[in-house]
Fold these 3 entries.
Entry 1:
Amino acid sequence: MAAEKPALQVLLCSPRGFCAGVVRAIESVERALALYGPPVYVRHEIVHNRYVVDSLRAKGAIFVEELEEIPDTTAPVIFSAHGVPRSIPEEAARRNLVALDATCPLVTKVHREAEIHFRRGREIVLIGHAGHPEVVGTMGQLPPGAVTLVESLEDIEKFTPRDPANLAFATQTTLSVQDTAAMVEALQRRFPNIVGPHKEDICYATTNRQDAVRKVAPVVDAMIVVGAPNSSNSQRLKEVAERAGCPRAMLVQRGTDIDWQLLDGAARVGITAGASAPEVLVEEVLDALAERYTLNVETVSTAEENMFFPLPRPLREDRAAE
């Protein structure tokens, strides 16, 4: 007779997984494939998730890092949810490419606010991670030197503005709420006149997912975050779990990535997913756990989400029928 599987209580964080901006970006690629037929070119991974990218590639999407990789074509080119520097749509227009912008509206909001600050003569400080596509896109809205990136409290202490009385700040949308609060505080302490965003830049989905993890992390032995290693919001969820008192936290892309040694002796495990991770991968992780444990699954919900963003105008049903 097979040995009885040990019991494991699983606390599923809610909200988790896809946010409205990611849903819109993926639907943009699928709708473009339906309207125009393959191939559809996508600049940069549409969202940071290998599973999503591979499934879209199988349907006829071709992912490129730069526009120069795209031949002269009448096929549409989609810009990813993270946003792009201003030079990219300009280059697409110069080449007469059919460009479709799937930038998340909450990222676009940061772009617009940065432009307004610039027009008002303010120097802009951007809190974010160097090299992340969203940061590259935001800094690329304005001329070189208009935006200074700060990644740490040390960066803020070293920052010397041209005019301390004429500053504004913005933040990457996928950062840790706690980290950013400390950095904003440091900026405001050094530069009391600094102008902040009209409404907080960190998006509702990032905040909600971190809140759910903060509630679950202190009462579990381990936390599994489903997401990609290059996904900023997924990495932040792992950090938030560790800070909230969870002794063991791991970031996995799929059920096969689980580090079973980290679950040794665990009686309660929390599970969440980054904003670009599909629910099918959460189910895969649960299936992997169920092979070794007898699961008792409970959902811990901290917010209801009903945010919806319409598709880019050329892809909407009413336009497509014209």
Entry 2:
Amino acid sequence: MPKMTFIKIDGTHVEVDAPNGLSVLEIAHENSDKIFLEGACEGSLACSTCHVIVESEWYEFLATATEDEEDMLDLAFGLTQTSRLGCQIIMRPELDGLVVRLPAATRNMTI
């Protein structure tokens, strides 16, 4: 089973199973007892609450962000050069071992 690691705000590393075909957001929700990644729009690319920061050594392996994703990322708190939306990162074999950092906060524009 492929794995990925979430780095929580406090620096804790949480390694979880990461089945191919699932998004990082779906993987976080399957592990909600250990990881909190909101995803207010349920992965419909209508918010930025599933913003994650991809560790730089993994960023080049991701598919290029779409214009819609980049527009939503503009709303994200603490945007970095390697920021992506977790709903848009789909696990595949070459991402086995992926490491993402959870940002310090999110902006939920629907509240």
Entry 3:
Amino acid sequence: MKPNLSFLEPPHPPSHVRWGVGVFSVLGIAALAYVDFRFHRCLSLPIFYAVFLFLSTWYIGAMAGAISAVASAFFWTLVDWHLHVPIEATSTHMVWNLTLRTAFFLGIVYVLARWKETLMQLKQQALRDPLTGLLNLRGFFLLAEHLLVRARRTHEPLTLVFLDVDNLKAINDRRGHLEGDRLLRALGELLGKTFRRTDILARIGGDEFLLLFENADGNTARKMVEKLQRKIRELQERLDLPVTCSLGVATFYSPPPSVETMIREADRLMYGVKHKGKDKVCYASY
């Protein structure tokens, strides 16, 4: 059930990592200029400035990349000017070289930044359900695993709700798939407005949703689910559709070994409701 997660994605490093990359890039550019100055007759090194442009842009941002670009062009031109510029060269020639090299490095930064931005947009699209705007299964796993790690550290309870829309197939058959899609979009909007922004909300299948609540014990979970049921009844009246849901609510006071375990337990509770007549809630604590 767990989706494959690609590591070829734009990173989201914490601030101390960004600072570390920034310091490393500054020191690296200066060190490269020094080595270029000492061994200019034997080695051609300016191409390696691009390494620090990549690190700054990819791990920090376009502005950091631009600063690295200007610094790289400056040091390259400075070393070049002091070592092997013809005697007849003037300051105009130096400014010309500096301008061209700066433009070249800034062009590299621009391409990298646009590439990163495009990948970020594709990543966001890959994590979202296009119909409801909620997370999809892949997005749910990415965030839920972070929450599970934090729960192991803080010892706070987690509650996972497995929600299944009752009789969606019958609605599609009798009223058409457009009505079924309208119901799912409305339910996704309802979930987004009902719960906190820190809660993890996902549509993982045609009529299946997962709701993960951080620091939510059994009593808190029961209140949240009762509120949700009231909202669903209001939605039923507003849409004039037979909207009911079966819910399995699993509260974990001890963090489970994996996200798959959480889903499996909540799914089992939800199917217990289905067998007992639907439109009900089954609670359990672990």
